[in-house]
Amino acid sequence: PLPQIELFKQGFNQKLQEGQKKLHQMWLDWSRKYSKESGDESSVEPEELEYLALLVARNISQQLQITCCKIVSAIQGLPSSLQEKVNQSLSTAEELHTAFLAANSFQDLSTSVLTQSQRKLAVIQKYMEELLDYLKNNIPLSWLVGPFCPREEGE
Description:
Structural class: mainly alpha
Largest sheet: none
Shape: globular
Oligomer: single chain
Helix content: over 70%
CATH superfamily of the domain at 47-137: Flagellar protein FliS
CATH class of the domain at 47-137: Mainly Alpha
Number of helices: 5
CATH architecture of the domain at 47-137: Up-down Bundle
């Protein structure tokens, strides 16, 4: 069971690294395209950088939302305190994604969204670490042997 948790953690870290590589590649592709069009990278307009930063924020917040949603559905049966924390993480991820999706520029984002985003993400990370710590020490029986379902008569 403990090796399975470590495997999950490694998979999670790998997905995170893949996401970072994808974002880096998006930045490189955009930079190359712009360089070819303008011939001078030093003349990048602030609006274009702002647009790219918003695009990256949208993509990251969407991936975070998807991941939290999958975790919420996978932890049924765990203590309600953990389920509540993961549900809070999902709500926070949804709020961030909605805010970044609606914005056309950073001026469209409220000051609180910009200043609190880092704190909110740190709370999500803390909750996920608590979940992993719990799973290391308390693997649910249903995860080891599968869900138990009553059989219908005649099967």
